[in-house]
Amino acid sequence: MNVGNTILSIIVSLLVAIFSTMAAQFHKETLVVDAKNFNAPLGVAYFGVLFMLPLYPSYLLYRVIGTGAKASDINQEAVQILMRKEKFHSIPILMLALLISLCLWVNPTYLFGFAIKYISVSVAMSVMSLNAAFVFILSITLLGAKFSWFKALGVVLSVTGVVSLSMDKEFTGNLWGVLIILVATISVTIYNVLIKRVFGEPSLCQVLFFQSLMGLANVVYLTIPVGLLVWTEVEHFVFSKIPWTPLLLYCFSILLYSVTMNFGISLLSPLVISIGVILGVPMNGLCDIVIRGLQASFWFYIGATLITVGFCLTTLPIDNWIQKKEENIDDEVEKASPTL
């Protein structure tokens, strides 16, 4: 990993942490501010994905008007994400792939919204950050990533930090809420690894095109199920009581998170995104302390410290530094050796 990639990894991880924290806090605020008149976790997830629809059209408009690029050239680049060996996948395959991608994306969002009614956002994010361990293992087994003891230690320290945070009784909650978030974590892990496995390193244009397709698939596949849940009053809301401010802030936050996450996975690795989510755990903890009045204990500070150290170990190219140092020592020894 060169200096540029290291800096980019740190920036992406920090952005993921910030956007995931914003999305999580606004998500909870949306669902708990007036639960009697607004209780629609799937509806919130559905509404959030709708914001993906204009991503590619907006990008296309910017490129055509702002840079003078040809729309046909941009579209040709974008649709390559749907091709394999220079041939388009069949319509049924594409529809199935979009359905699977949509389910893997919406499922954790829905479960997260359902669970944070029973547990704090900090605990929910703590459990979800365990996907770093899952991603680390799957990246080596499925993506052929090189094993690193420093990254492995970083993941272990980060997970230990998460466990420390969860030991803070002020932040813990209902066991069922934790189990629900664990299921969401598995879904996030599968999504992250599959995106990298299937798409490799797509361009920004292709990432935005894929996300707009996700928004379209959301309309096609989920409009009727969401309508049925509202009609049967499994989910309910009073239109005049919809908390528009936190809802719209959540939608913009999750949109920024999704763009950063998908582009980060494509350009870097799923592990970088997972570490960003882990870094968001203490951020959410601070939000819960400052905004929601929860009291931090010794375990919170220990957990935050371990997560910070783990973040450094997984993002900094320590292996490369050691290898470069050893090479420099070998060069110096070779130069110092007398020639016969």
Main features:
single chain, two-stranded antiparallel ribbon, transmembrane, EmrE-like, 340 residues, 14 helices, 4 strands, mainly alpha, signal
Straight-line N-to-C gap: 38 Å
The gross shape turns out to be: globular
Number of domains: 1
Main β-sheet description: 2 strands, antiparallel
Strand order within the widest sheet?
A: 1-4
* Class by SSE composition: mainly alpha
Count of alpha/pi helices: 14
Order of helices and strands: HEHHHEEHHHHHHEHHHH
In percent, how much strand structure appears in the residues? under 5%
Mean pLDDT figure: 81
Assembly state (oligomeric): single chain
Tell how many strands the DSSP assignment holds.
4
How much helicity do the residues have? over 70%
Query: Which spans of ≥5 residues are poorly predicted at pLDDT below 50?
Result: none
Rg, nearest Å = 22 Å
Structural features, described:
This protein is mainly alpha-helical and 340 residues long. The chain has one domain (3-321). Helix content is 76%, strand content 2%. The chain contains 14 helices and 4 strands. A hairpin with a 2-residue loop joins β2 (83-84) and β3. α6 runs antiparallel to α8. The protein is globular, with a radius of gyration of 22 Å. The mean pLDDT is 81. Residues 1-23 form the signal peptide. Keywords: Membrane, Signal, Transmembrane, Transmembrane helix.
Quick recap:
This is EamA domain-containing protein. This protein is mainly alpha-helical and about 350 residues long. It has helices at about 5-30, 40-50, 55-65, 70-80, 90-115, 120-130, 130-140, 150-165, 175-200, 205-230, 245-265, 270-290, 300-315, 320-335; strands spanning about 40, 85, 85-90, 235.
